[in-house]
Structure formats: C-alpha cells, structure tokens
Design brief:
By secondary structure, this protein is mainly alpha-helical. The protein has one domain. 60% of the residues lie in helices and 0% in strands. The chain is built from four helices and no strands. The longest helix is centred in the C-terminal third of the chain and has 10 residues, at 31-40.
C-alpha cells in the first residue's frame, strides 16, 4: 500500500495518494486542500519514484 501511495504522489496524482491515508491523516487536511497545496506548490520530488 505504501508503494501505491508514493507512486501516486510521484506521478502528481495527489488525490489518489490522499485517498490511501488513514482516517487520522485525512482529518489533518482535506483532500481538496491537499491537492490544491501540491498543485500550487509542486514538490521537488514530483516524478521521482520512491523506493521502499
């Protein structure tokens, strides 16, 4: 599951990455705000595949 989450994140599919979070994580930031955050301020690791 971690690989799926990080692959989604690295591909820029932030909504799909957020969907895999725990309930506690989802309470920290809404899906819409998470997607907006990384759409407006892309992570420098975007496109870089994580190795787990």
């Amino acid at each position: 599951m971690a690989t799926e989450e990080f692959d989604s994140y690295a591909a820029g599919d932030y909504g799909a990455a957020w969907d895999l979070w725990t309930a506690a994580g989802k309470r920290a930031i809404s899906r819409a705000n998470y997607v907006k955050l990384f759409t407006l301020c892309p992570e420098i690791a975007q496109g870089v595949r994580f190795e787990i």
